[in-house]
Specification:
The chain is of the alpha/beta class. The protein folds into two domains: about 120 residues, 2-Layer Sandwich (Nucleotidyltransferase, domain 5), CATH 3.30.420; about 150 residues, Nucleotidyltransferase, domain 5. The protein is about 35% helix and about 20% strand. The strands form three sheets. Strands 3-2-1-4-7 form a five-stranded mixed sheet, with helices on both faces. A hairpin with a 3-residue loop joins strand 1 and strand 2. Helix 3 packs across helix 9 and helix 6 crosses helix 7. The structure holds adenosine-5'-diphosphate and zinc ion. The site of adenosine-5'-diphosphate has 15 residues, from helix 5.
């Protein structure tokens, strides 16, 4: 049975993915729009949805999953805004308002991109049927999301697990790339951190490069830290860096080593997984959110 038709927007720092969809396998229309100035980008989104709705009918809900930080608190004066991003032109930008206006009164959902991705995985993918789950996207930055007791965790802010503190590897002298914290998780383990530490793009490093030992060391700490806070049953690792096929097994092994028998750890192979919806987790997550 088909769900509601949702106008879904996965809002990223380099591109927007827009879709009219009722769920996996029912993407009715789909477009990628480069993220330029807010005005131009929003104009192109509205243009896409106007055109497609005139062919396929009206969307019943609008759902946005955005890069952050963003104000997700319904009722806040800046609800629907991108807040303090260093991304040029986008700081303190109302993303939801103009889109909501263009859709004229249909229900709206505004979430982070990682929250949307986890929600998509919890609805149709790797975290389906589990009450507690987490998602890390390891790409240009590191974003994190948590579902506890079936609900996404957020308030005026949202989890910022990408900026958690981690212990430096004894062989790592790199200071980190986070402009706020230097050597937080994102500072040490994002794609740009790998590139700056080794002087080569992450995708160009061979599978047996020492970079991956460090990467597994940091990502496993992130997994274990989440496990010690809430008993997640699934930790999903997505994003460009996880396209390294050898990395997942290395992270699982390191998780077992770090836990060291303390937590009643289920099989690490069951616990730490890749997204089942692959690169569609974010946009499908928006569709799932719009259908609630
Ligand atoms: P974004 O975070 O911008 O949405 P991605 O999730 O694709 O996009 O992340 C981009 C980062 O992932 C870049 O730093 C890039 O070097 C890294 N990356 C992309 N593909 C690979 C790969 N196959 N192996 C390792 N790193 C990769
Ligand atoms: Zn940081």
């Amino acid at each position: 049975m088909s769900g509601k038709m949702v106008a879904a927007v996965e809002s990223g720092g380099t591109k927007m993915v827009a879709a009219l969809s009722r769920g996996p396998g029912e993407i009715i229309a789909h477009e990628k729009i480069p993220t330029t100035t807010p005005k131009e980008t929003i104009y192109r989104l509205v243009e896409f949805f106007d055109r497609e709705q005139s062919v396929h009918g009206k969307a019943e809900a609008l759902a946005i999953g955005t890069f952050g930080p963003a104000d997700l608190e319904v009722g806040s004066a800046t609800y629907g805004f991108i807040t303090s991003t260093p991304k040029p032109d986008w700081s303190q930008t109302d993303l939801l308002g103009p889109l909501r206006e263009a859709f004229g009164g249909i229900p709206v959902v505004f979430e982070t991109d990682v929250n949307a991705a986890l929600f998509g995985e919890a609805t149709w993918g790797a975290a389906k049927g589990f009450k507690h789950s987490a998602y890390f996207t390891v790409g240009t930055g590191i974003g994190g999301s948590l579902i506890v007791d079936g609900s996404l965790v957020h308030g005026s802010g949202h989890p910022e697990m990408g900026h958690m503190r981690v212990t430096k590897h004894p062989n790592d002298n790199f200071g980190g790339v986070c402009s706020f914290h230097g050597d937080c998780l994102e500072g040490l383990a994002s794609g740009p951190a790998i590139e700056k530490r080794w002087g080569k793009k992450a995708e160009e490093l061979p599978a047996d490069h020492p970079a991956w030992v460090l990467e597994a060391y940091y990502l496993a700490q992130a997994c274990v830290n989440v496990l010690t806070i809430t008993p997640v049953e699934k930790i999903i690792l997505g994003g460009g860096v996880m396209h390294q096929e050898q990395l997942l097994a290395m992270v699982r092994q390191e998780v077992i080593r770090l836990v060291n028998g303390y937590l009643k750890l289920q099989d690490a192979g069951e616990l730490v997984v890749l997204p089942q919806l692959g690169d569609h987790a974010g946009i499908l997550g928006c569709v799932a959110l719009g259908q609630i």
